[in-house]
Amino acid sequence: MLSNTRTIHNKRVLEKTATNSFMWTDPKFNKPTALLRLLNADSVPDLSPYYGKRTIASRRRVVGLLQAINRATAMLDSAVEIEPDRNYWTDAPKDLREALEEIDDILAEYPMRPTVEISGKYGDGGLHFDHANGSSRPLGEQLAVWDITTLAQKKMLERVRECMCGEWFFARRKDKTACSAICRHKTYEQSERFKVQRRQYMRNYYKLKQSGKVR
Ligand SMILES: [Zn+2]
Question: Cα(41)–Cα(59) distance, rounded to whole angstroms?
Answer without folding.
Answer: 8
